[in-house]
Write a structure and sequence with these properties.
The chain is of the alpha+beta class. The chain contains ten helices and four strands, in the order ααβααβααααβαβα. The chain starts with a helix and ends with a helix. The mean pLDDT is 96.
């Protein structure tokens, strides 16, 4: 399928056939998902590929026993890991340093490395840090003051940064679903689930959050409820 065919093929499936799907192919789609664009390339996500029948049954219960969960052949749980921001920032700083040494003119390397150290060594830890809303309040006050003199990114509160992490994770989830569609596999993203049960089930740390759970399988004919509906394109398309 070409891209347009893949996008048109993908539907949120509510019933799957009792037919196994290839775990390695699902894993490959997750590898492709890890290439999704994300904020500052921090990659604050994890993908939990659930294939164990007992765990799958428990996940289905946590998903409120929706049909798409009860009939799924596998699950993927997309998880945000804002708590890993320091570790990921160090990884990115090391990578950026190597890229600069390899690709930048010698006379500019010191300047560029200093910029990356400021960005990943100071700015990223400052932006992603959480402490009962205090850091978020300080960041909000700072950006509002700086914004008086120059264009500024204002969404710096703790809730704002949480949204940033979840948006990046959602981009990975969409990439995964398109990859599955290209294989002729089907998916359904779920937001209706008991996040506390899922976190306990997957032994997730306190700082992790469940972004969405995606059921996987091969669609039954009744798995698609009806014709796809979207509001008229003219209502959402704006030319400026």
């Amino acid at each position: 399928m070409n891209f347009e065919e893949i996008v048109n093929y993908r539907r949120s499936i509510r019933h799957y056939k009792p037919v196994p799907i290839d775990s390695e192919k699902v894993k490959r789609c997750l590898e492709l998902a890890s290439l999704a664009p994300n904020s500052s390339n921090m990659q604050l996500w994890e993908f939990y590929h659930v294939t164990n029948p007992e765990v799958m049954q428990a996940v289905a219960v946590a998903c409120l026993n929706q049909n798409t969960a009860k009939t799924a052949q596998q699950f993927v749980v997309f998880v945000t890991r804002q708590d890993l921001h320091r570790k990921r920032a160090k990884t990115m700083l090391a990578l950026e340093t190597q890229n600069i040494l390899k690709n930048s003119p010698i006379e500019k390397q010191e300047k560029y490395i200093k910029q990356r150290k400021l960005y990943y060594g100071a700015a990223m830890p400052f932006l992603y840090s959480q402490f009962f809303g205090v850091w978020g309040l300080l960041r909000t006050l700072l950006v509002n003051v700086v914004g008086l003199f120059r264009p500024m990114f204002y969404q710096a509160g703790e809730t704002d940064m949480r949204v940033v992490v979840h948006k990046s994770c959602a981009l990975a989830a969409q990439t995964f679903m398109l990859g599955m569609a290209e294989l002729g596999y089907d998916t359904c993203p779920m937001e209706g689930f008991d996040s506390r049960r899922v976190k306990r089930l997957l032994h997730l740390p306190h700082g992790a959050e469940v972004n969405m759970i995606i059921s996987c399988g091969i669609r039954e004919q009744k798995g698609v409820w009806g014709e796809r509906m979207r509001v008229p394109f003219e209502e959402v398309y704006k030319v400026i």
